[in-house]
Structure formats: C-alpha cells, structure tokens
Amino acid sequence: MELFDVYPLYDVTPVSAKGIEVTDDKGETYFDFYGGHAVISIGHSHPHYVKRIKEQLEKIGFYSNSIQNPIQYQLAKHLGRLSNCEDYNLILCNSGAEANENALKLASFHTGKSKVIAFSNGFHGRTSAAVATTDNPAINAPINKQQQVTFLPLNDFEAFEGALKEDDYCTVILEAIQGVGGLDEPTTDFYQFVEKKCRERGVVLIADEVQSGFGRSGAFFAFQHHDVRPDIISIAKGMGNGFPVGGILIHKSIKASHGLLGTTFGGNHLACAATLAVLEILEKEKLIENAHNLGTYFKQEALKVPLVKRIKGRGLMLGLEFDFEVGDLRKRLIHNQHFFTGGSKNKKVLRILPALNFSEKHINLFFQALNRELS
C-alpha cells in the first residue's frame, strides 16, 4: 500500500525536537518558526508536558464518555479561570474542524435556522459544514456546497447589516486573526458591530479561535483584544501542543440536552492531561505575556527589513508581506538557513507561528537568516 498523495512535501525528515529546535534524520538542526500550523505552543518535548502524559498513560489512557472522567472537570475549571471565560461550558473533541462542526451544528439547533455568514479568506476546517464556511472553492466538494453560506468582505459594515436583514441566519463565524487566509483582522469597531447586530437578531456569534487561541495573540483569546463576548468559542491547535484535541466553549445561555452533541475520542484522559500541561505551563512561565512582548519586538525588527511591505497579526501569530510570492523564499529559508516558516492563501505573506516560549535571541537569528536570503 502507498500513501494517498495529498501534500507537497519538503525533503526534510524530523526525528526529534526540543524547544523550538527540530533535528532531522541527517543530524541537521532547524529552528521551528511555524510550529506545525501553530500547534506547538509550549515548545517541543517540554519536560512537564512529557511527564504529565507519561504519568497519565501509566494510569489510564482512554475510556468512553459514558463514565465519569474527573480530569475533564479539572480541565474545564482551569481553562475557565485562565481564559476569563468562567460563564461558558466546555465540550471536548479532537480537532479544529470538529470544533467548528460542533459549533455550527449547535448554533443551528439553538436557533432552528440553517444559513451561515462567513467572511472572505476565512478558513474553518475541511469537514462538511466547516469547509462550506471556508472561502476556498478548491476544497469544497459538491456534497459540501449544499450548505447555505453567505461570504462577506471583512470589515464591510454595510454588507453585513444588509445580509442580516434576511431572517434565516443561525450564526456568524469569524476569526479574530485569519490564519490560512493571511493574517487579516476585523477592526474592533467591526467586531463589536457584528456582536451587537447578532444580539439584536438572535444570531449565534462563533469566535473561531482554533489557531489564535491559547495565548498565541498575546491574549488568551484573540477576540479579547476587541472587548466582545461570543456565544461559542472554538479551540484546538495549540491547546494540546501536538496531541489531537479540540473543543468548544458554549455560553451558559445555550442549554445542553443529551444526544445534542457527541464524540468517541474527545476529552479522553490523555487529551485532558496534554491540555492541562499546556495550561499549567502557559500560566507558570507567563507565556501569554511573553507572546505579547515578543510580538512587539518582532515587529520592531521587521521594520528594519526594507523588502517587508506590511507586518500583520498580533503576538506570535504574525505575517510578513512582500511584493513577491514567498514560496521560493520559504524553501531557501528551510534548505539554506534551516528555518521553518509558513505560507498562506495570500502567497505574498510569510507566516510566523513559533512556540510561545521562544526568545529575542531566536528572533535576531531569524532576521539575520532572512536578510541573508533577501540580499
């Protein structure tokens, strides 16, 4: 049997990793400024993370959600306190796509309606309703296109208010920082306008924090930069530091009932241990504050690079926009300079998504490498 050919692959084979350094099968070391799509939040193989998972695995790794699992309650309490979202309830799943799928389904159950408002260049996953709300026709199969989704320009007040005049929308889904789309953001005025209009019309507001959550933006959630309160918050990526885990935070005004949602593997003992380890490290090592401070330092250094036309994002969810496509630059950074970076739908944006516990020294090394490739 061969692998189904889905991804174009770089000729690098990582075999071990520590902190933000990744070592390949030839003994070469690379600096990880991409974190596997913003997944590595506390660094590779963090000792506390490894210890937490090992200890849990020696006790019990998995059982179904038909029994009591006190670690889920512990996780919900810790997450609520650290994120300042104690007026929400939590259900755990396995990925960002599943989180958004559950969020969209719950919004439809809650309102009894089916249409969705999403935004240009948004990305919410690759499964059924999640991919239908993703602005990329190339990954929407005919079976996905039966979903009723209206795509609007980001920060267009008039278009948004006009769309909501139709009384058949169940939800609006919005990224506070667009990840795959290229680091564009709603303005504070627009995000607050969206929240206000959703409240007036009884439409559920979903904050997609799959990539921007868990401290990456310099706040626990990126929507918190805008002083809004969504109805549902979807989470994944950095919450497990590589262990497959996702979830949604559901405001207590939305009531639960048995059978409404469900999952086999979501919230298993190992997933909870991984996420608790991430929360404990974020808090103990003050990594959210570190993300904010290093984001500021990164932007200061980026201003010194003449070919950078625009600096996008917040915290350690950043993008450097050039006046040329960055695909070849990314290859050179990997093979010549040994730095992993990311791309986006905007092919002129170089995405930077490192672990939240890296340092100014690493930023300096990156800009030295970037300048060598741009000179």
Write the layout of secondary structure elements.
Blueprint: E1 14-18, E2 21-24, E3 29-32, H1 35-38, H2 47-59, H3 70-83, E4 88-93, H4 96-111, E5 115-119, H5 128-132, E6 149-152, H6 157-163, E7 169-175, H7 188-201, E8 204-208, E9 232-235, E10 246-251, H8 269-284, H9 287-302, E11 310-314, E12 317-321, H10 327-335, E13 339-340, E14 349-352, H11 360-374
Parallel strand pairs: 3-13, 5-6, 5-7, 7-8, 8-9
Antiparallel strand pairs: 1-2, 2-3, 4-10, 9-10, 11-12, 12-14
Helix pairs in contact: 2-8, 3-8, 9-11
Which CATH C-level class of the largest domain is it? Alpha Beta
Provide the domain count. 2
Spatial shape: globular
* Pattern of helices and strands: EEEHHHEHEHEHEHEEEHHEEHEEH
Strand order, main sheet: write it out: 4-10-9-8-7-5-6
Oligomer: single chain
Distance between the termini: 45 Å
Number of helices: 11
CATH architecture of the largest domain: 3-Layer(aba) Sandwich
Strand content: 15-25%
At the fourth level of CATH, the homologous superfamily of the largest domain is Type I PLP-dependent aspartate aminotransferase-like (Major domain)
Low-pLDDT residue intervals, each spanning 5 or more residues: none
What's the total count of β strands? 14
Question: What is the rounded Rg?
Answer: 20 Å
Name the average pLDDT.
Answer: 97
Helix content: 25-40%
- Structural class, from helix and strand content? alpha/beta
User: Largest beta sheet, briefly?
Assistant: 7 strands, mixed
According to CATH, the fold-level topology of the largest domain is Aspartate Aminotransferase, domain 2
